[in-house]
Amino acid sequence: MAKEIERKFLVNDSWQPKEDGQRIAQGYLCTEPAHTVRVRVKGGRGYLTVKGRSEGIQREEFEYEIPLRDAEAMLQLCDGPLVEKVRYREKWGAFCWEIDVFSGANDGLCVAEIELPDDQAEFPRPSWLGREVSGEVRYYNSQLIKHPYSEWKKV
Amino acid sequence: MAKEIERKFLVNDSWQPKEDGQRIAQGYLCTEPAHTVRVRVKGGRGYLTVKGRSEGIQREEFEYEIPLRDAEAMLQLCDGPLVEKVRYREKWGAFCWEIDVFSGANDGLCVAEIELPDDQAEFPRPSWLGREVSGEVRYYNSQLIKHPYSEWKKV
């Protein structure tokens, strides 16, 4: 078990990938407010992840690597469409950003996440960093299967 | 991944345990018809199990052993009360029965399950075997948290 302390930001157009990213497909077996159960295929490996309720920017997380074949079969059991994205990793000072460029129903969405040692930690802000969206529910991957980004624009 | 082929029966009063059973506590992160996600603590070990939709007496099952501490923490995330039972194993001919004696909200319920190599397999019937309840949804453990056996009697 790990406590996840993460902050999430939008990414503005000045950001460009510096190297190849890792393709991710993920789905959800459960997206209740109290907990989510995620199935993920990332870089040819499978993962099953349970996350508890968000408390501010903290969240309980339990992640297990599972056989790829299991993960692929379980993706078929998931509710709704899958979340598809390419993940890029970029160092900035002592920190490492994960930049997710979505495709499919969430095409056009790009967010950057940073994992922090504690919820007061300071970190340098890259020039491409946009507005903070930590805790904004609609940016949760578990919500992007129900209300994909492509539908937001119409509102 | 495994395909579970199981048949489930009630157990009549003539059955008596021959040796100590194994205490099981389990809860559900998800109990949708299409899939369930179960957290279980059994004999001091933790398990996370995803099951697909039942097709007759067959069901896709993915089970992973996880750290006990994770399982105990995840039980706190589960919906509703836990299912508590003691599981006994009993050989009968070439087959092994699992007999679950429920307690707590499901006190009084006792069911026996047998795992079969295929859905046509024949097996000897112990004298204590009651009515078959394979596929009866209310006997699913995932339903016993929502509609426990103690409440059936009132209906």
TrEMBL record, chains A, B:
Residues 2-146 form the CYTH domain. InterPro entries: CYTH-like_dom_sf (IPR033469), CYTH_domain (IPR023577), NeuTTM/CthTTM-like (IPR012042). Gene3D superfamilies: Hypothetical Protein Pfu-838710-001 (2.40.320.10). CDD domains: CYTH-like_CthTTM-like_1. Pfam families: CYTH. Transmembrane segments: none annotated. The active site is at residue 28. This is CYTH domain-containing protein. It comes from Selenomonas montiformis.
